[in-house]
Amino acid sequence: MNLFQFSILTSIILATVGMLAWLKQQRVCSAMLVFARSNRIAVFLMTISLGWFLFRYVQNLSEADFGNYKLIIGLVAVFIYFGSFALVKDFLAVRSLSIICLFYSREVLDSAWLQDSSGRLLLVTITYVIIVAALYFGAWPFRFRDFFIWLDKNDYMVKLIALSFSAIGLILLAVSFTL
After folding, report:
1. DSSP 8-state symbol, 154
2. How far apart are CA 81 and CA 75, in angstroms?
3. Nearest CA to 7 among 76, 107, 80?
4. Stated pTM of the model
């Protein structure tokens, strides 16, 4: 995908998340708390993460990037996949969502690399915010739970965050056509 397509996709995701959070304000926090500990969602997202890693990154390793060890790297990734379900069961859905966000961010930043368009700066800024959030929640997934417990007590903040996501998504959509 190119920069324009990533910009459109990111704007649609942000606007959709914001609008869904706005429409379902009372249920969004409880849904996110269920999401954080859901084993089915964890299996689904971890499988996507493993597939993305194996087929996008491991398959494309050159000899200079440990390409001679593709099989070993793949086996280690599969071992980590199954080991995480056996040893790190708590908040695995949050961790796997963080992995997917980091992989997506890598693709976005690769597409923005050395582009002249000034409109890419908004997309890159949003991408770095996503990276920081993914690293934070991936390292301390219980903070995800704490954030939504706090958010459940503050209806105003749910509205503010939902409107912010929608507005940023729509602004990014408008800026996308200048790329």
Report:
1. -
2. 10
3. 107
4. 0.91
**Crossing angle of helices 25-36 and 142-153, rounded to 10°:** 160
Name the H helices within 37-91: 39-52, 70-87
- Which residues, 6 or more positions from 96, have their beta carbon under 8 angstroms from its beta carbon? 42, 45, 46, 48, 49
Residues 15-46: tens digit of each pLDDT? 999 999 998 877 888 899 999 999 999 999 99
Report pLDDT for 179. Answer: 66
Token pair 């417990």 in the structure block, residue? 149
Phi, psi torsion values for 115, nearest 5 degrees: -85, 145
Other C-beta atoms closer than 10 Å to the C-beta of 132 total: 11
Task: List, for residues 80-99, the tens digit of each pLDDT value.
Answer: 999 999 998 889 999 999 99
Q: Let me know how long the chain is.
A: 179
Neighbouring C-beta atoms of residue 83, cutoff 10 Å: 11
If residue 42 lies in a helix (H) or strand (E), which one and from where to where? helix 39-52
Which residue, among 154, 120, 171, has the nearest Cα to 28 in the 3D structure? Answer: 154
Distance CA 110, CA 94 (A): 24
Burial 135-166 (b: 16+ CB within 10 A, else e): eebbeebeebbebbeebbeeeeebeebbeebb
d(CA 136, CA 159): 23
Question: Would you state the pLDDT for residue 114?
Answer: 83
